[in-house]
Design brief:
The termini are far apart. Helices cover 76% and strands 0% of the residues. Helix 4 packs antiparallel against helix 13. The chain has one domain: Amino acid/polyamine transporter I. It is globular, with a radius of gyration of 24 Å. One of its GO terms (cellular component) is plasma membrane. It is a multi-pass membrane protein. Keywords: Cell membrane, Membrane, Transmembrane, Transmembrane helix, Transport.
Length: 529
């Protein structure tokens, strides 16, 4: 038997096998180092994180603005009416299933984890003087920053460019291989730049791994805190068991495929999420939540550009880059596979429809969710013990403490665990689908290769339980996504070229069809009398 068959690479070319081998070996080595020397890995990653923020924090901020302008131009120009997959393409999924998959793959457990973590951290450690919004209560300012980073403009900066690129170049214009590098074919010939193409795909795989590893790692540590503090269970052991169970469900999803596996997991997760936040809104500080959400929305909308571009250049340290640049780096890493996955499930829908499903609809839902969870943890009676727990045990401890002191906290704890587990499962499903697709250049990769990617990502996520500090995982997307950002502008330009060529080609085609339909040759010059 072909030894590559075990990895789903029996039909792969040499370069594709190399992509898998290099990325998988690096991923496995990182996991082993983390398990054997977690403190050393923690120190190394934190040092790299600080270096990237100090010297390249500005780059992530500037790139975000450029991509936002680019996305708005494409979506709201004449190119927004282009249908992904061509003008005759039909939607593959129903409206609700489509929206569920877009939402669950795009926003993960960060809604709970950072919905608590960022506002409470900003209250505990406010921005340096002078404040970016003079006179705003720190609670409202903290929640306003959360809106900037995970509602708008964050949503519109990072997901649409990837979705547009995949939708326009791979599905509408048409290429032979399902790879990130294939998008460069619009502006660069592959035969003359084969090495560059391989490097682009490698950088994309590494960036995706960084973003997904951080999300799984954050979730693993929150699982552990909730199981230990809320339910008094042996946290680490039960978390390992929970991940083993998720692994079995994940493998089942892999074999079921996109339509049955990922689609059903996304639907279930959305239902659990809606139930959880409705429950929290009722049992939590409801009136304070409404008041704070409205006040923070005013601070956010009135100071949108100020907060989005806040760098505190005269202050010591990296406070602003530690939040905004970190978020933009994570969005960049996460957006690689989210955008490509969204394009995959959006075939048959227009560029404008896809943008609405990816930005406008989620933005409204995310604003409500962050208002509920931010109002809960920042309310009097909650903010003091949560801040104390944050200072002693980090964000996971703050979440667990807030859950513990909430009425019916055990019910809320169970719901949070189920929601985060659902997000881990759908994110892992979607990520390995795209990782395998990029590796093999196949829109429908085989289950064996996807299973290997899932095992490797899960191993890396479980390893993060051994890291001594929760904040160390912030380094994964920030450091690993940096190399790929160099290619983002080239991909954006290639998307524009593809949209322009396709639009004018369709326009010429319509004119030709109209000419044929309306053509009147006049009286025949034949012999008939």
């Amino acid at each position: 038997m072909n030894p590559w068959y075990l990895f789903g690479l029996e039909d792969a070319r040499r370069g594709e096998r190399g992509l898998f081998a290099v990325t998988a070996a690096s991923l496995a080595a990182l996991a082993v180092v983390g398990l054997r020397n977690p403190r050393g890995l923690n120190e190394t990653m934190n040092a790299a994180f600080e270096w990237v923020l100090t010297y390249f924090g500005w780059w992530f901020m500037l790139l975000g603005v450029v991509l936002l302008v680019f996305s708005a131009f494409v979506v709201f120009s004449r190119y927004g009416q282009i249908r992904i997959g061509g003008r005759d393409a039909e939607p593959e999924f129903g409206l609700l299933s489509w929206l569920a998959m877009v939402f669950t793959v795009g926003y993960s457990g960060s809604i709970i984890i950072w919905g608590v973590g960022e506002p409470i951290s900003i209250v505990a450690n406010p921005p340096p003087d002078p404040s970016p919004v003079a006179g705003a209560p720190i609670e409202s300012l903290a929640l306003a920053f959360m809106y900037v980073h995970e509602v708008f403009p964050g949503l519109a900066m990072w997901y649409p460019p990837f979705a547009l690129a995949f939708g326009l170049i791979l599905y509408t214009r048409g290429v032979e291989e399902y790879k990130f590098s294939a998008m460069l074919g619009v502006v660069l010939d592959e035969d003359s730049h084969r090495t560059l193409y391989w490097i682009v795909d490698l950088a994309a795989l590494i960036a995706i791994v960084g973003g997904v590893a951080a999300a799984i790692g954050f979730s693993a540590q929150v699982f552990s805190a909730l199981l230990g503090s809320v339910f008094g269970l042996p946290a680490t052991a039960v978390t390992y068991a929970l991940f083993a169970l998720l692994g079995l469900v994940f493998l089942a999803d892999v074999w079921l495929g996109l339509h049955k596996g990922i689609q059903n997991a996304a639907r279930t997760t959305v239902v659990l999420m809606l139930v959880s936040f409705a429950f929290l809104f009722v049992v939590g500080p409801t009136l304070f939540t409404v008041d704070l959400g409205l006040d923070a929305a005013g601070v956010w909308l009135d100071n949108l550009f100020r907060l989005s571009l806040y760098t505190a250049p005269t202050a010591d340290g990296n406070w602003a880059h530690g939040w905004t640049s970190f978020w933009w780096a994570w969005w960049a890493a996460w957006g690689l596979f989210v955008g490509s996955f969204v394009a995959r499930v959006s075939k048959g829908r227009t560029i404008r429809e896809t943008f609405v499903s990816l930005v406008f609809i989620p933005a409204g839902l995310l604003w409500v969710q962050h208002s509920i969870i931010g109002g809960w943890v920042l309310a009097p009676g909650y903010v003091e013990p949560a801040t104390e727990a944050l200072n002693s045990g980090g964000i996971p401890a703050a979440i667990a403490t807030a859950v513990t002191i909430t009425p019916y906290g055990s019910v809320l704890g169970v719901l949070f665990i189920l929601v985060i587990a659902g997000y881990v499962l759908t994110s892992l499903d979607s990520a390995v689908y795209i990782l395998s697709s990029i590796t093999l250049g196949d829109e429908n990769p085989n289950a064996r290769n996807r299973a290997w990617w899932g095992v490797l990502l899960s191993l890396l996520g479980v390893m993060t339980l051994e890291l001594p500090v929760f904040d160390a995982m912030q380094a994964f997307p920030t450091v690993l996504a940096l190399p790929f950002t160099l290619f983002l502008l080239a991909i954006a330009y290639a998307s524009y070229v593809a949209a322009r060529e396709y639009y004018h080609g369709e326009l010429d085609r319509e004119r030709g069809e109209a000419f044929i339909t309306n053509y009147d040759p006049g009286p025949s010059d034949g012999d008939d009398d």
